[in-house]
Amino acid sequence: MARSIAPTASVSERATLGEDVIVGHGTIVYDNVVVGDGTVIGEFCVVGHPSTAANGPLRIGPMSLIRSHTVLYLGASLGPKLETGHHAVIRENCRVGANLRIGSYSSLEGEVDVGDFVRIYGHSQIGRGTALGDFVWLYSLVTCANDPLPPSNIEAPCRIGAGAVAALNAQLLCCRIGEAAFVSAGALVHGEVPAGEIVRPDGSLGGPVSHLLHLESGTRHPWFRHLTGHYPPEAEEKLQALRNLYLTSSGAR
Amino acid sequence: MMDRVRIAELMNQMLESQGKARPRSDTQLREIAFRSLDFSELALRVEIEIGRELNFDAPALRAIETVGDVLDFLEVASA
Description:
Chain A has one helix spanning 236-248; strands at residues 4-5, 10-11, 16-17, 22-23, 28-29, 33-35, 40-41, 46-49, 58-60, 65-66, 71-73, 77-78, 83-84, 89-90, 95-96, 101-102, 107-108, 113-114, 119-120, 125-126, 131-132, 137-138, 143-145, 159-160, 165-166, 171-173, 176-177, 182-183, 188-189, 192-193, 197-199, 205-208. Chain A is globular, with a radius of gyration of 19 Å. In chain A, 5% of the residues lie in helices and 29% in strands. Chain A has a single domain (4-248), classed as Hexapeptide repeat proteins (UDP N-Acetylglucosamine Acyltransferase, domain 1), CATH 2.160.10.10. By secondary structure, chain A is mostly beta strands. Chain A has a twelve-stranded mixed β-sheet with strand order 1-4-7-10-13-16-19-22-25-28-31-32, with no helix packed on it. By secondary structure, chain B is mainly alpha-helical. Chain B has one domain (4-77): Orthogonal Bundle (Non-ribosomal Peptide Synthetase Peptidyl Carrier Protein, Chain A). Chain B contains three helices and no strands. Chain B has helices at residues 4-17, 36-50, 67-77. Chain B is globular and about 30 Å long. In chain B, 23% of the residues are buried. Classes of the chains: A mainly beta, B mainly alpha. The A-B interface holds A 184, 198, 200-201, 206-207, 210-218, 220, 253 and B 29, 34-37, 39-41, 43-44, 47, 53-54, 56, 61-65.
């Protein structure tokens, strides 16, 4: 399949498109953008949005799927197999690993570090400077705030460990969340959450995630004990490492 | 092993703090909106009382649908 650029798209001569890239109607691709092979960019996207804070080009990894109305800023480095929902925003200088899926209307607000195989559902806002480990799951409406005294110039961005889950509408306030922890829907989280702990809806700690059962089936957390077939094959080695680390460490059960 | 009566007391304390009536052993969990987070809290209370971790691998993992199923599960897990 050859490269395909819609007639109403505007692609800078100083952008570099790989093989078999598709650019949809109404999309603008600015200078200093590098798009990997096989990437599909939908309609009305802004790719390489200029920013005075950008520290380099925008790089989009191969085999990505950028859905319509996505805005990607200069300075972001995005790994292979990125998948965005509609109207997603990734601002300048974010460093994103492989196979991020970020849902519609969600945003990474700049300088965000994202590990590999992270899942962010729709309408989530990830504050500037946040760090997400590999295999983190953030469900819809999750907020990661970075200002402990709003409004101020103090920055205390969230740090979320590998395999952690924040359920629907969890509000994460300048906190640190350990590996494989589980934050309940609607919880307001401050401070430090140890690895493998449940955070209850009232923000209190609620014991180990291995106590979290689907009562009807007996399926229980941590999720990487039971969830299979979700990730691309190249994730398996890292996923196994996470299982090994978590399920054998004495500090987490 | 924590005896079943004591586990039921802990469960009732939890439910009463949520404004719920004491259930019967055959009460369906969905009738009293007893969900996974409630189960985890009850398990934690049992662990605190017996002073050690429950063994979740010990009980056969089968459907937990009634209050009695919860008591059975935690009784075996606390052995």
